[in-house]
């Protein structure tokens, strides 16, 4: 079935790409999804990219239980107010009513900081630099595959530090060296790093750092966040340590996460009217070989040549599509829909000419390539296509980043054409709320380091304290 | 704190090893555990070993939600009877009472086969060869870290096939090529492969294949199972396909899983009175280098030499323990407790003599090794220690596998010294139940292929239909 056009109905386009590219489908329990093998293979590459960087920056993995006794959630006031309305609760188990209900983790600060109270006694025990890969449940009223599901998968880092400075440095380091690096290099998704406004902070955080991407419908996507939690959780759970000064101190915390939502971000960053476009570093299948033949005597020859080329391309992730029941044109469409970065077409005429035909998913057109040069050319194309998709996304994002000179421009630009709209903000939550009420746009990011802004608040006209970037967001 | 001796109190020994080696600790919700970084690092190696083999045998990963609407569990009669008493139930979410309670998966056949009804239309859609890594909840009355926890982690394969023969072949192939191969080669844990008796089968299975290991307390551990499910789930969930014969057929199913329980198996297969002993292929730290120095001027020299040796041992997983606050003897004990396969000691006298001192965890004693030979020697030791631990475990298992000639011998041997006791069985569940009531021993495995047994049933004296291996088990 043909895809809806992005320009005509972006949400329908997204839904159909996810479905037709066999990435995920809704499941029975409200807002849950089955992540199908093709979607899962993408997630495995994302996991590897993030996990490698988490370890390279000195963190270790562990695993905490998903059940949190209800009373534990209630100890950090802002946190429980933020999450209580979204939790799923186990009230019965083993055939009996539980004495105390168990909350399915909506995030794990509570149970982890309860446990850190046992693990941390002295400054010698610090820092704790840990992470876990886990499933999370947050009851969503308007679920969308990958973007908002009641159960999703993520990693959550939870670190403990002696000083505020060290914790802040950690939160920012993860944002840059883990998240931004993986997302830009592997997912080829350009992001803006910044701070959240107080109203958009994680419940219980002193500062939330974010990376924000721009989707092809010119809406923003929060692609990952890293929080400086101050001493809030240490105080709520009694995590004190004997400091170098011989005094007791509460530990400083960070937490940070990215989730299966990134898959939705990849689809909406790179996809076009033909379907997915996957950057080679992320693609489960980097090269597809489509053998073309009519007569049976051609078949053996073509398949043999295809197998030989595929073998020479190892360790690239190559798939030879030798299905007999589909015609080449059908296969071309299917692999374009699935976003495979490079296609090799190989028929008797190609073989006679000692060449193959190459088609890139990131640009239109085909090119011939002599057989002896295929490996070198394809290897080079992996970088070229990766760079090209990143560059296209950067250009799109930059072409949809605007400066507004007054409130009217802000309100107009966030709606049409949409994108990031930058301008002065006085720091007042009321001005932020007014923009949201009038236009649905929210502050996506503030500068990483607060820097004095020139000019006035776009909303109220008072002196601006910093520059904000507004957008309508997922 | 000194460990209890295995021979005096094996359960206490196990509990203390898990605790002191920093592998896991109990968490708040009944029967749940925190898997700590050292335990998790072992699980990551197990996951990699299993996952590589799952993929090498043609399977792909996916992910199903953990919430299963309660009515879905009830469609396969034996299955619901087996699992209903163990499930945890979500009754409230998003601040409201749910219309239908959600069961937290105790295993995923129900939701997966419900979904396969949509995925399978024709024989062309078969086989489906899929697997997922997931957390599972089964309410345990007597939890023990790693061995029985209310939440545990596992992989569960779920395949669908055209014919019974193909499904049976799949179930047995996974048992051998995935599980047995990974467990014997990587975990160095010898196992017996066989069939379960009907009373020990998975709820809803036609045949359960198992691999059974013997722990150092001479109790058996079911280390992994692979089930042929016949058409039971296809019939319960309406999974029909149009066959090559133009007729509709129900699909044939398998499912198979191994879990974090394997970590407990490793501890109890190899551990000794000093703590863990990890096979090199599994060990998160394969080699620990302990620098020894007194004066400050020695320190720089020794640390430099240690760093150089560690660098040369790449890509082995090497850790240099340069903590200033602990003495070498303390470090030796700690790394022995944590089961690191090989220790390199390195002091000024060693350096003067152009050598290091090597200590293996699998055998007593130390040996000197000239510095230029360290890399070759350590590399060889990785295989030697791996083989040695496997051989020790095989010898122990074989020394505790007995043949019983009558019921008295069976009852005596399963109790003292304990181990696998083999003898004739008539196939009657009543005889099996009598043994369990009298001795706590159960049938751990029957021959993979039923083969005519000689002699009589050890229990009732009637003609034996096959030979069974009994043991007291975890």
Characterise the protein shown here.
The structure is a homodimer. A seven-stranded mixed β-sheet of chain A has the order 3-7-8-14-11-10-9, with helices on both faces. In chain A, about 35% of the residues lie in helices and about 25% in strands. Chain A has three domains: about 10-270, BirA Bifunctional Protein, domain 2, CATH 3.30.930; about 285-380, Rossmann fold; about 400-470, Translation Initiation Factor IF3 (2-Layer Sandwich). The first copy, chain A, is built from 14 helices and 23 strands. The two termini of chain A are about 25 Å apart. In chain A, helix 13 (about 405-415) links the parallel strand 20 and strand 21. Chain A has helices at about 10-20, 35-55, 70-75, 75-85, 110-120, 165-185, 230-235, 260-270, 295-310, 330-335, 350, 375-400, 405-415, 430-440, and strands at about 25, 35, 60, 65-70, 90-95, 95-105, 130-135, 150-160, 190-195, 205-215, 220-230, 240, 250, 250-260, 285-290, 320, 340-345, 355-360, 365-370, 400-405, 420-425, 440-445, 465-470. Chain A is α+β, with helices and mostly antiparallel strands and about 475 residues long. At the A-B interface, strand 2, helix 2, strand 3, strand 4 and strand 5 of A face strand 2, helix 2, strand 3, strand 4 and strand 5 of B. Strand 5 (about 90-95) of chain A pairs antiparallel with strand 5 of chain B, so a sheet runs across the interface.
